[in-house]
Every structure is written in C-alpha cells, then in structure tokens.
Model the fold of this input.
Amino acid sequence: MSENRSKLQRLERLMKVQGQKRLLEEWRLGHLRKERDEIDRSDAELLASLGTGSQLHGLFVGAKVRNLRRNEAARRTNLAHQSEIEKKIQSARRSEKGVEKIRDEARRSTVVEDEAKELEVGVDGFLARRRTSFE
Done:
C-alpha cells in the first residue's frame, strides 16, 4: 500500500472521529437548550401562580421567590455552558474543515499516483510487446 493511500485512510478515520465529536457536542447543546426551555416554563408557571386570588397567597410568596432565584442561577449556568459548547462546536468545525482540505489533497495525490502506475504498466506492456515483435 502506498504512503499516500495509507495517509488518506488515516485522514478518513480522523474525519470520522472529528465528525462524531462534533455531533456529540451538538447533542449536548440541544440538551442544554431543552433544559433552558424547562427552566423558562417553570418560571412562567411560578409567575402565573403568583395571582392574589387565593387566601393562602402570602404563605407561598417566599418559596416562589426562592424558586425564581434558583431558576435564574440555573439559567445563567445553562447559558454559560451553551456558550462553551458553541465554541467547542465552532472549533470542531474548523478542525474538520482543515482535515477535509488535507484529505482532499491526499485523495488527489493518490489518484495521480494510481494514474501514473496505470500508465507505467501500460507503457511496460507496450514495450514488452514491441520487444517480442522484434525478436
């Protein structure tokens, strides 16, 4: 196996691994977005329940405020993680693009090498037929 073909196979494996890493990060980002949506939904439910229609309204205001504060802290943490994951995804995409360019160059090099071998075999066959015809 030629050096170019071996290099091409290594680059193909590297592309596959980097693609899987990027997909994992994208899955994590999706999970964090769902988590943020749940936090927002919880906030909406807490705010909706702050109505003054109930006689027990004042008893639960403190707990609801604590829950809203807890949700806000969770939201900040979630957004920080989302930002971190988005940076990782961008980095993974840049790396993937760089490896893709190198892989394409290796693929072209392998094709050129294969064509040169085919040409060499054809020329050798032609010369061998010519020699036998002279003898």
Observations:
- The chain has a mean pLDDT of 86.
